[in-house]
Amino acid sequence: MKNYIYSKNTVVLLFLVILTLLSWYVGLSGDESLKSDADSVVMIFLSFLKTGLVILFFMEVKSSKPELLGMCGVWMVGSCVLTSSVLLSYI
Amino acid sequence: MLAQATFLKQEQRRNPGELGVWVFVLADMFVFTMLFCLFLHYRNEDVFSFNESMKKLNLHYGMINTVILLFSSWFAANAAMAMHKSSLRACKRFMLLTMLCGLSFLVLKGFEYSEKLSYGITPYSNEFFMFYYVLTGIHLLHVIIGIFVVGFAWIRLKVVGGEGIGSVGIENAVTYWHMVDLLWIILFPLLYLLPLS
Fold first, then answer.
1. CB within 8 A of B191, min separation 6: which ones?
2. Cβ of B25: how many Cβ atoms within 10 Å?
3. B-chain residues near A10 (CB < 8 A)
4. How far apart are CA B98 and CA B145, in angstroms?
5. Which of B8, B10, B31, B185 should we substitute to test contact with A (largest number of A Cβ atoms within 10 Å)?
6. What is the C-alpha radius of gyration for chain A, rounded to an integer number of angstroms?
7. Which of A72, B19, B67, B156 is deepest in the core (most CB within 10 A)?
8. Separation CA B80–CA B178 (nearest Å)
9. Nearest alpha carbon to residue B40 among A87, A16, A71
10. Are the Cβ atoms of A10 and B67 closer than 8 angstroms?
């Protein structure tokens, strides 16, 4: 059991949880100075960063063949750019 | 030397699970990307109404569900790792924990839906809640299927053993489960956190 707890995946999990709690705190905060359209884009970027960590480490794509790595990269970057562009089109 | 230590050689690289599962997972994720863009497009047309509706969502439910799914992904990754190490007992235990997290997600989502419905908030309330119920509903369906997929792999592991199902069978189930987590990671900020300015 110790092998699983003291592993790279656990560090990734902790990082993911911290990022989630941070975004939750910003969402919860009544402080309007914390909230802007740029923050919306940052929040989307952070969530795609989280998906990148899950894909690379949990899904073991880090050690997969370049074709799969490339396809996952295309989805991640493409989706991030697409969603951010649609969001920014309002501004 | 450093390059050798850092990068895996071509022959050392292998895709986890079967190609068909990855085609399905990537296609599903691309479809969800379109749904995310559609949601943001409608939000842009009526930002005020969407922001006001978003404030009616319970952020705590969203955050707890995200953490639950992150832990479930960690358990699923460990199940695959245990299978590689031929530790069937640990693999079965991690798969059970993954399913338990999935069930907790379902229960919490049930509470969230019943809370909304008790306030009279339905998919017909406005466009935001139409998207909320459709997006979370489709995701919930994925979670239910994921629990069955992991459960099926767990039963096969119990009945036919490690050699019967093989590490690829476990990897297929685990890859599907990770997709469920990935989709929620994007859905959480879109539905719960975006009403910023």
1. B54, B57, B62, B131, B132, B135, B136
2. 22
3. 74
4. 13
5. B185
6. 16
7. A72
8. 12
9. A87
10. no
What ipTM is given for this predicted complex? 0.91
Smallest Cβ–Cβ distance between A40 and the set B8, B181, B196 belongs to B196
DSSP state of B85: T
In this prediction, residues B147-168 reach a mean pLDDT of 86
Phi (first) and psi of residue B110, to 5 degrees: -60, -45
**Cβ count within 10 A of residue A36:** 13
CA dist B190 and B139 (Å) reads: 14
Q: Where are the domains of chain B?
A: 58-197
Smallest CA-to-CA distance from A10 within B196, B149, B15, B70 is with B70
Q: How far apart are CA A9 and CA B12, in angstroms?
A: 20
Q: What is the pLDDT of residue B17?
A: 81
Sign of CA dihedral A11, A18, B16, B97: positive
For B71-115, the pLDDT digits (tens) are 999 999 999 999 988 889 999 999 999 999 999 999 999 999 999
pLDDT-derived band of residue B12, with 50, 70 and 90 as boundaries? confident
**Domain B58-197 CATH (choose: 3.40.1190.20, 1.10.287.110, 1.20.120.80, 2.60.200.20):** 1.20.120.80
Contacts of B41 in chain A (CB under 8 A): 86
CB proximity list for B46: less than 8 A, separation 6 or greater: B127
Type and span of the H or E element at B32: helix B19-45
